[in-house]
Amino acid sequence: MSESRGMDAFSHLGSDVRAALSERGFSTPTEPQRRAIPALADGQNGLVVAPTGTGKTETAMLPVLNSIVEEGAPEGFAALYVTPLRALNRDMRERLDWWGETLGVDVDVRHGDTTDYQRQKQANDPPDVLVTTPETLQAMLSGEKLREGLEDVRHVVVDEVHELAGAKRGAQLSIGLERLVELAGNFQRIGLSATVGDPEEVGKFLTGDRGCEIVEVDVASKVEFSVRQPEVTRQDERVGNELMTSPEMASHVRAIREIVDDHDSVLIFVNTRQTAEALGSRFKELGANIGVHHGSLSKDARIEVEDQFKAGELDGLLCTSSMELGIDVGRIDHVVQYSSPREVARLLQRVGRAGHRRDEVSEGTVITGNPDDAFEALAIARRAKAGEVETTQIHHGSLDTVANQIVGLAMDFGDVSARRAYDIVTRAYPFADLDETAFREVAMELHGNRVVYVDEDADTISKSGGTWQYYYANLSMIPDEETYDVYDMAAGRQVGTLDERFVVNFVEPGATFVQRGEMWRITNIDEEEQEVNVSPIEDPAGEVPSWTGQEIPVPYDVAQEVGEMRDVASDQFADGGTREGVAREFTTRYPTDDYTAGEALEQVDRHVDAGAPVPSDDRIVVEQAAQTIVVNACLGHEANETLGRLLSALLGQRTGSSVGLDVGPYRIELEVPARVSANDVVDLLRETDPDHVEPLLELSLKQSETLKFTLAQVAAKFGALKRWKGRDGVGLSRLLGALEDTPVYDEAIREVFHTDLDVARASAVLEAIQSGDLEVEIVGERTAVGSGGRSSGQELLTPENADASVVQAVGDRIREDRVNLFCVHCRDWEHETKVRRVSDQPECPRCGSTRIAALSPWADDVVKAVRADDKDEEQEKQTERAFRNASIVQSHGKRAVVALSARGVGPQNAARVINRHREDEADFYRDILEREREYARTKAFW
């Protein structure tokens, strides 16, 4: 596009729109507007890649609004604006409403919360422009009146298209747009995206590979980063003691506060909601004027802090990726990224939110806390400045999405030929390579589940009795997981939400946690209403909620650069370089200071000083200390996850024992039985056929909760389960057996491989090891680098029987748990103590009875129920359970106390464990562990 054509971009718009531009104060176009509007005004498909705050919405919508004004509004919808988050609608509404009112164009919003009255009004009298979500579009495509309105669609704008391209939501939308083509014919498609490494691929996703004009704004030249690790001061040590935290954490809090104090409006990005809450609680205790914003807070709580921040009432806002997307919170003059952002695109997107005045540079500071974190942040910052952005992983070929959309096509047409349905689905870019046989297998699976009717002779797919119910229950491809609302009982308001897994594994009356930067104590859980009632507390000790949400994976290329940095530094140290000198040299290549570089390099310095080979981009180092083997490999999360699962499964098969696995981007940590050595691990790396990685992993996955969990979710999308968590007695293991030779199983395997693993990379690594291109060395002790990081998410893989180390851990945990002993005979005596301090046969010091119940320390309601004279029905049940509990303790003494103190093991299960009469204590704890696992599985999935 020529520069002169771009400079008078607004001249491509009609007089009405140009007049509105002047009224709005748009004197000159922003860069994306200057470069994109001419092509979009000509009716071309377009993808605009630019940071938030650069006028992307107007870039897309001005040509669309101009077209409606110039050509006249149709009877139906002229344009759809599809946005992945409802939160965006609030910001869009304010801007689009102004343009609509000024230009005489009717703009409205439709999503899950839209009232029935408003929906009816939109069906009878469609607005010219409708702002909606991918899921609501799915519902609209099947509505009789709405379909008539959709026949007039001439433009579709997809906002944050990069977010959708890598997810099943986007795969579903891509077919949904092809279903819209069946109604409206071809329409103009405009995508708005943050910086991506492969805009051409995202363009193909958007248009079904119909071609589009790509306008990509150079972000890298307009951002500045600095990576720093704060120096710990005496004040930090003092504050750390006050906050009951480490001096390092106190130094991070101080550094962030200093940045906030030096600027007017600061966004502080963190990678997880847990971190947001942990930091938020510390800022709150220190009286800092900083709010907290993330997806598990209630809508009202989020809107409240957004408005406060925009109005200048807050100096800073702690947030997760909830703020990456274009929520309008006013002008931001600095961005803090707390710990490595993990990805180049994420750093550019987050720091890109600062600034945005003409030719103004966006500034950001990354605060790091350990060598891995610092090296990673430095590599990402350098790559960001160089424009080396990751590619988008388009979600290709998801069969449950195909199933979902086959049902959609049956809803659209009543009955449709299988050939036509296949052609519509495969016009969508993520399904262009879908095999016809696979498509027919999916259709037949739906037929078998009575979701649609397939007439093989006539080659048609038709609606059946279950079609309507299935379709409206599955408008979204987001997995159906329960959440519990958290209510502050005193204030009578919702605080936020917790996911079901957290409620199952942690929540019980009396437990404490952090949410919205405040400490809460759980008073009770209402299972039927799915509510957790809480009250605020001052106690700073608590556990941060563990929401569902995976750690952001570090890409292979970033991990490789970290390995390369280690390699360069180790060579310099080996040649006699000092840490100060090497650090100084690093600051010439990376945006950091001498202190931060020196702290990051300290680990490599010690490693080299000990004479150990340094793990790098072309060297894997395997080390062992006792039963812990660490494979130091700079391969990123997904390749290491794949190799870790492979090694864990193969070692488990060889030994018949469980192998603990903990994976990060630079290490695979294995907890192995005593007879396994580092040599065994290296032998597997050198001998395992790279072509066998996928089938070996599939075999091992059959025993994992990961596959069963995914299978249940996928089965729901195929209509194989009416509701995957329904209390219908369908055990997940039985489900696995029943679905193994179906497309449901194939999709569950594909989903796990797509989401968590990188089989191709892991296979290539094995090939490189076996060809000698990738060096592998063994060290007989833990090294400085090898001990430097530990990820979360330890998972015990196959086989199921726990080895000695796991059993010991269970025993140690239960012995340290607290128990409330209560005499049900005299009902007078109760005593709280640790399980390990309980005598072999507890008895009441007041009446001498041995009828002692072993209760949770928070079971006040049980004690009150036993003591009550006039009991209601619930108290009668509580009393009965307490007497059963005491009877077991009376018969079996301390062993019963131990069993009753396990998680989810009530009197009935405790009796079963004890009645197995295990002489070996390890076997006794194995039985308890099995009951705990059964409890977790039952509570989470049934």
From TrEMBL:
Keyword match ATP-binding: yes
Gene Ontology BP annotations: DNA repair
Classification via Gene3D superfamilies: P-loop containing nucleotide triphosphate hydrolases (3.40.50.300)
Gene Ontology molecular functions: ATP binding; catalytic activity, acting on DNA; DNA binding; helicase activity; hydrolase activity
Ranges of residues in domain Helicase ATP-binding: 37-214
DNA-binding found in the keyword field: yes
All copies of domain Helicase C-terminal, residue ranges: 255-410
Highest taxon, organism lineage: Archaea
Keyword terms of this UniProt record: ATP-binding, DNA damage, DNA repair, DNA-binding, Helicase, Hydrolase, Isomerase, Nucleotide-binding
InterPro entries in UniProt: ATP-dep_Helicase, DEAD/DEAH_box_helicase_dom, Helicase_ATP-bd, Helicase_C-like, Lhr-like, Lhr-like_DEAD/DEAH_assoc, Lhr_WH_dom, P-loop_NTPase
UniProt cross-references to CDD domains, sorted A to Z: DEXHc_LHR-like (cd17922)
Family: Belongs to the Lhr helicase family. Lhr-Core subfamily.
Protein name: DEAD/DEAH box helicase
